[in-house]
UniProtKB/TrEMBL annotation:
GO MF, any single term: protein farnesyltransferase activity
Cofactor(s) annotated in UniProt: Zn(2+)
Family of this protein: Belongs to the protein prenyltransferase subunit beta family.
Prenyltransferase alpha-alpha toroid domain segment(s): 58-186
Domain of life: Eukaryota
A single Gene Ontology CC term: protein farnesyltransferase complex
Listed InterPro entries: PGGT1B-like (IPR045089), Prenyltrans (IPR001330), Terpenoid_cyclase/PrenylTrfase (IPR008930)
Name this polypeptide is given: Protein farnesyltransferase subunit beta
PANTHER family recorded: GERANYLGERANYL TRANSFERASE TYPE BETA SUBUNIT, PROTEIN FARNESYLTRANSFERASE SUBUNIT BETA
Any Pfam family hit: Prenyltrans
Keywords linked to the UniProt accession: Metal-binding, Prenyltransferase, Repeat, Transferase, Zinc
């Protein structure tokens, strides 16, 4: 970071080359992707009409403080995501990683300890302490621990039991159910 702001991708002259190319095959996903791209284009257009600055400015310090605080406390508005707590850890840690901001050691250790309480005796991770192991929060928890990247974080993952859990949700056709007795999800 040399102090020169990097243009946001949506303001980059090559942005249109990054937009979805569906090769003429329309799917539910491609239709949704096109809707998102149109929405972003509209937001950028409105921004350009309303502001004299060529692009928005990323308020790095405010983002950093908000994210760091989120690893310790989230408002009641996040209560509906109680079964997604490893995802919240992952999203916040990944955002800090993208900002190239450090994760204070004490905060990283607290996240490790929290995620250890989400690890099920069966080896997978659950959405929160005391919940059933589920493939989605397992993915998020392992990613979050890998982002932290300390000996403590790696030691949280019981690799033998994690493999047992993954094998318990793997189906004969190679697909996976999200939890024992659950639905198949790509």
């Amino acid at each position: 970071m040399d102090g020169v702001p990097t243009p946001l991708r949506c303001f980059n002259e090559y942005h249109s080359a990054e937009m979805l190319v569906d090769d003429g095959v329309e799917t539910v996903t491609s239709v949704e992707q096109k809707k998102v791209e149109r929405s972003i284009k509209e937001v950028v257009s409105v921004y350009k009409q309303m502001h004299s600055l060529p692009q928005p400015t990323l308020l790095r310090e405010q983002h950093y403080q908000y994210l760091k605080k989120g690893l310790r406390h989230l408002s009641d508005a996040y209560e509906c995501l109680d079964a997604s707590r490893p995802w919240l850890c992952f999203w916040i840690l990944h955002s800090l990683e993208l900002l190239e901001e450090p994760i204070p050691a004490a905060v990283a250790s607290d996240v490790c300890q929290f995620l250890s309480r989400c690890q099920s005796p069966t080896g997978g991770f659950s959405g929160g302490p005391g919940q059933h192991a589920h493939l989605a929060p397992t993915y998020a928890a392992v990613n979050a621990l890998c982002i932290i990247g300390t000996e403590e974080s790696y030691n949280i993952i019981d690799r033998k039991k994690l493999l047992d859990f993954l094998l318990s949700v793997k189906q004969p056709n190679g697909s996976f159910v999200m939890h024992v007795g659950g639905e198949v999800d790509v």
